[in-house]
Backbone:
């Protein structure tokens, strides 16, 4: 029987490389991988519905549950990132602690950017920084229509605005940004991270909450799911096997250009267990519920969404446990 041909748009990560290069083949499916930067991939899915399977922004997907996006997710999360190290402040702005952001001018890429949702949620719930007590500025237009909560001040920056330049010039006080700012990369003393030891802050956050923030999930076109319902489990299994392949690769110190890769892996396992990038619904329910709460509080959804609603029902069953 001929295999079903599907396009897959995703990032070129170690966790997805087996699918991209063909060493992992989903049962019954021939994938046509399309790798591209996240902003392009997310925009093309939201506006043009171009791909059969797509790694997609968790925030944009949450917003789309109130709309008509013809896709449904499976509990695969190929991109996660702790976010304390992405809160940048202008030196001299009087910001030494998170609560010092109250009353300040703070930039985000967009209100709907997943990284920003996590950072604003953490600031409010963990550090007592209410959304309405910050003057927010967005660099870009939103991908999807949005109604902000009452009392939240959000201004759109000019189309040609550069957040990093505005920070250096004193036009902004801080930025919650999904990437490291150029000024930070080149060591400009006029901008710094809010948490000088961000790694310690992120590890403490994980110990306290058990949350490793999810940035992206994987969505499948609804028409394909209706015609071939087995596709959801086949892809969930294939992504899981690709992840395991990435873990196996890291276990061999000859294959990774890091002098202390073994020490880093041991440290990560001691804190986060053997499968930090765990897939499946049950082990991620708390993280997903927290994000749904943040999304509702920040105006991404009109109602508080149960995270089980986000996924193909046949993928909610427990996956085989990771074997170290």
Residues:
């Amino acid at each position: 029987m001929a295999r079903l041909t599907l396009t897959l748009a995703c990032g070129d990560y170690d966790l997805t490389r087996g699918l991209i290069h063909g060493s992992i083949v989903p049962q019954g499916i021939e994938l046509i991988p399309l790798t591209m930067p996240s902003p392009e991939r997310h925009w093309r899915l939201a506006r043009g519905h171009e791909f059969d399977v797509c790694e997609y922004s968790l925030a944009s997907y949450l917003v789309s549950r109130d709309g008509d996006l013809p896709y449904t997710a499976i509990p695969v999360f190929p991109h996660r990132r702790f976010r304390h190290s992405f809160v940048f402040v202008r030196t001299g702005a009087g910001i030494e602690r998170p609560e010092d952001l109250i009353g300040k001018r703070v930039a985000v890429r967009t209100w709907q950017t997943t990284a920003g949702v996590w950072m604003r949620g953490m600031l409010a719930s963990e550090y007592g920084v209410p959304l309405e007590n910050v003057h927010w500025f967005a660099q870009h237009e939103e991908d999807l229509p949005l109604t902000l909560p009452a009392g939240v001040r959000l201004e759109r920056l000019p189309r040609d605005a550069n957040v990093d330049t505005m920070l250096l010039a004193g036009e902004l006080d801080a930025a919650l940004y999904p990437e490291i700012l150029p000024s930070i990369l080149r060591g400009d003393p006029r901008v710094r991270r809010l948490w000088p030891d961000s790694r310690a802050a992120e590890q403490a956050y994980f110990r306290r909450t058990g949350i490793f923030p999810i940035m992206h999930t994987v969505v499948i076109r609804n028409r394909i799911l209706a015609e071939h319902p087995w596709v959801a489990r086949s892809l969930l299994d294939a992504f899981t096997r690709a992840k395991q392949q990435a873990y196996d690769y890291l276990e061999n110190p000859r294959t990774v250009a890091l002098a202390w890769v073994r020490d880093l892996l041991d440290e990560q396992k001691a804190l986060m267990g053997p499968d930090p990038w765990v897939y499946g619904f049950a082990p991620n329910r708390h993280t997903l519920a927290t994000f749904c709460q943040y999304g509702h509080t920040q105006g991404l959804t009109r109602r508080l969404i149960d995270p089980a609603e986000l996924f193909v029902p046949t993928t909610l069953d427990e996956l085989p446990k990771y074997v170290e």
Observations:
- The longest helix spans residues 231-250.
- The mean pLDDT is 94.
- Residues 4-80+213-315 form a domain with the D-Maltodextrin-Binding Protein; domain 2 fold (CATH 3.40.190.10).
